[in-house]
């Protein structure tokens, strides 16, 4: 595809363009759009994850587990252990939430390991001009997840401390209860609150966008001409894929752990 009219630049732009709904996209300062590809892939992976774990839970046995059940139990114990180390309260909600975040983000990240031209080629055969297969390389998707975590933080802050207790904490921590310190306290707490979803979203997006771009650049070597560049592209693609497995796993783990940490902090009192 890199040899198409427009050359390598057009090839990169093609792979970095989202599939959108034209009738909801408009120009101007308040322009907005719907990224159909990110929504479709993330929903499909979410349904796949839920169905997979539901089937394994339904067929679980008390005896020697099969490979599928053993893998699911391993993931459950790993996530529950991380939650238990950070949060010492009731884990009936936070445990499943952490499991959902970890597996779902990992599956969305894993889409980056598919051949760069595979999904766009299938989409093109279906009459779609563009299709990006990595939802976590979409800033809108990572911010949607981080804002959800932010709203959960606010909810559990009010639930654990009450309205009065949480307001008291916002205006009196960390410098004290003097009225002159209320505004500085609130400003610092506001900055701390807003920095959490921003950093959570930008960290995941930055790593996955960079990884996707590296795959696209390496794939461009395949059609650049010459056996040397083609061989270099094959080696580079294989090496980067192996290294990227570590990246997508770490990013899913970090997003899950920070979600648990932020909600755990919402339960703490100054």
TrEMBL record:
Membrane-crossing segments per the record: 29-55, 93-111, 139-158, 209-232, 238-263
CDD domains: ATP-synt_Fo_a_6
Main localization, broad class: membrane
Keywords attached to this entry: ATP synthesis, Cell membrane, CF(0), Hydrogen ion transport, Ion transport, Membrane, Transmembrane, Transmembrane helix, Transport
Record-linked SUPFAM superfamilies: F1F0 ATP synthase subunit A
Function: Key component of the proton channel; it plays a direct role in the translocation of protons across the membrane.
Name of the protein in its database record: ATP synthase subunit a
């Amino acid at each position: 595809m890199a040899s198409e009219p427009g050359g390598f630049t057009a090839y990169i732009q093609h792979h970095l363009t989202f599939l959108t709904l034209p009738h909801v996209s408009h120009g101007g300062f308040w322009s907005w759009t719907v990224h159909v590809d990110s929504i479709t892939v993330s929903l499909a992976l979410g349904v796949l994850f839920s169905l997979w774990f539901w089937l394994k839970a339904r067929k679980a046995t008390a005896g020697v587990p099969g490979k599928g059940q053993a893998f699911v139990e391993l993931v459950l114990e790993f996530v529950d252990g991380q939650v238990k180390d950070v949060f010492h309260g009731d884990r009936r909600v936070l445990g499943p939430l952490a499991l959902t975040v970890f597996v779902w983000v990992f599956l969305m990240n894993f889409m980056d390991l598919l051949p760069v031209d595979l999904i766009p080629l299938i989409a093109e055969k279906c009459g779609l001009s563009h299709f990006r297969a990595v939802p976590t390389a979409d800033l809108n998707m990572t911010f949607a997840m981080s804002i959800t975590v932010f709203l959960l933080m606010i909810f559990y802050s009010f639930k654990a401390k009450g309205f009065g207790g949480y307001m008291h904490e916002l205006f009196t921590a960390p410098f004290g209860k003097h009225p002159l310190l209320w505004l500085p306290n609130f400003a610092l707490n506001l900055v701390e609150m807003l920095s959490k979803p921003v950093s959570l979203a930008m960290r995941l997006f930055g790593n996955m966008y960079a990884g996707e771009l590296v795959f696209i650049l390496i794939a461009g070597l395949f059609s650049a001409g010459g056996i040397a560049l083609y061989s270099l592209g094959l080696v580079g693609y294989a090496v980067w894929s192996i290294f990227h497995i570590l990246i997508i796993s770490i990013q899913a783990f970090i997003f899950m752990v920070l979600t648990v940490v932020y909600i755990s902090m919402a339960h703490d009192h100054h």
